[in-house]
Design brief:
The protein is built from no helices and 18 strands. The chain has strands at 2-5, 8-12, 15-17, 34-40, 43-48, 55-57, 61-67, 70-72, 79-81, 93-98, 101-103, 114-119, 124-127, 130-132, 138-147, 153-156, 159-161, 163-170. It is globular and about 45 Å long.
């Protein structure tokens, strides 16, 4: 169980949710994954000083709510819901991302290539978020990225502006072996 509410983060490192490996070694994760990750009413400023995204939601994470948070002057990746996992892991699922404000303006220095939300895992709802930059369009910013193999996804009523790409579907990568 993870609950982060009413906190302030500035230029912090990546926060990992789930991140449990070796499902086969822990048989109980098939029926009871790591659950109830609640991230609400927080303020994130500046960006991520290390890591891929502010939140990396990965292996075996379930029942995730990220709501009513404010990202301001955010010159890094925001949320990454990871469906890619090893042979012994489960992707994250049961995701709700709602009511967040992503001000992705690169206020200091050059704009980094980044996204607000990246979804490569199924069973998600992304609704009623604002993703924007102040001033002119940012050529390095993508609002929402969705992997084309994601199922049971609802993306609706988001306001996206000032991004080079608003909502993008990307090819899923797979291998045959």
């Amino acid at each position: 169980f993870v609950k982060i509410t009413g906190s302030y983060f500035r230029n912090a490192g990546s926060i990992a949710l789930g991140n449990v490996r070796g499902r086969k070694a822990r048989g109980y994760l098939d029926g009871l994954p790591t659950g109830q990750h609640i991230i609400t009413d927080n303020y994130f400023e500046g960006g991520v000083c290390y890591g891929d995204a502010m939140f990396k939601i990965g292996s075996c994470a379930s029942q995730i709510t990220i709501a009513n948070n404010t990202f301001v002057n955010f010159n890094s990746n925001g949320l990454w819901f990871m469906g890619e996992c090893g042979n012994t892991d489960m992707p994250c699922e049961n995701l709700i991302v709602s009511g967040n404000s992503f001000d992705m303006t690169a206020a200091k220095g050059e704009s980094n290539k980044r996204y607000a939300i990246n979804i490569t895992s199924s069973f998600a709802t992304v609704a009623d978020n604002q993703i924007y930059v102040r001033g002119e369009k940012d050529e390095n910013l993508c609002g929402i990225i969705v992997s084309d193999d994601v199922t049971r996804l609802s993306v609706h009523d988001n306001t996206v502006f000032g991004c080079a790409k608003g909502i993008v579907s990307e090819y899923a990568v797979g291998s045959v072996g």
